[in-house]
Each structure stands twice: as structure tokens, then as C-alpha cells.
Amino acid sequence: MTLDQLLDLGFDSSTHDGRYLHVRCSQCAALAINGTPCHETGCPNQTDECDECGATVPARYRLCADCANPEPLPPLCSADFPWADFACPNDATGPDGCCDECRAVLADCDEAGRLNDTNPDLDGGF
């Protein structure tokens, strides 16, 4: 463990005297148990790992900002829409794998892959 790693884990008052790392937190009585640095329960500096990518996140968060807010998908009518990975949000069991809502959105697509202006509330997504 390095000083930078301790600082990333929320041990903001930690120091290194050349030989030893001193685990300290400005918000709690931090300590190391068998070499593992620990905050007191409820410490505002406590951190956790993102469930998907392992990045450091505040305590009680499950996902980092990048995993929680992935890049938006292109509109359904776009040629760039990942149809191979598409799953109907309504768990449709129709022969084409779509429900009436999906078919209505696709019916509003013109030949060029753009949404027709017949429905101003339709944004191309679910």
C-alpha cells in the first residue's frame, strides 16, 4: 500500500515517514487491522468500489458516474442503433421480438432512418 492509495481510499491525514505509513483520517479514528486500513462505520471519508469497473466511489454507492450514466444510445431509427443487442423493454414474445409500442416507434421511421414529424412527443427511445 502506498500513501497515494491511502489518500484515494479517504485516509486524508495519512503520512509516510520514510519507513512507515501512518493511517489517519480527519473525520474518524482510522486504524489498520492486519495491514488493512479501516474507517469507522459512518465516516464521511469512507469509500467503496464500483460494482462494474472497480473505480473508487463514495461509501454506499454501487456504481461510479461513468457506469451509472453510460453513453446514450442512438435513436431507434438510426442506422447506428445496436439492433443485434436490442431487447424489447416490455419482454415481448411476438414473432419479430417486439411489442406494439416498439412497432409504433419503428413505424414512425422513414426510409432514411429518421423519425417522421407526425408525433412531436416521440424522441426515438424508450
Please describe what this structure looks like.
It is a single chain. The chain is of the alpha+beta class and 126 residues long. It has two domains: 3-68, no CATH class; 71-126, no CATH class. 14% of the residues lie in helices and 13% in strands. It has three helices and six strands; from the N terminus they run H-E-E-E-E-E-E-H-H. It has a two-stranded antiparallel ribbon with strand order 1-2. A two-stranded antiparallel sheet has the order 3-4. Strands 5-6 form a two-stranded antiparallel sheet. The longest helix has 8 residues, at 100-107.
Give me a quick take on this structure.
By secondary structure, the protein is an alpha+beta fold. The protein has helices at residues 3-8, 65-68, 100-107; strands at 15-16, 21-22, 31-33, 36-38, 47-49, 56-58.
Level of helix content? 10-25%
How many structural domains are formed by the residues? Answer: 2
**Main β-sheet description:** 2 strands, antiparallel
| Number of helices, counting only DSSP H or I runs of 4 residues or more | 3
Please tell me how large the radius of gyration is: 25 Å
Query: What distance separates the N and C termini?
Result: 45 Å
Strands of the widest sheet, in order across it, are 1-2
Order of helices and strands: HEEEEEEHH
Task: Please tell me what the overall shape is.
Answer: rod-shaped
Poorly predicted runs are 118-126
User: What's the overall average pLDDT, rounded?
Assistant: 75
Proportion of β residues? 5-15%
Secondary structure tally: strands: 6
Structural class: alpha+beta
Oligomer: single chain
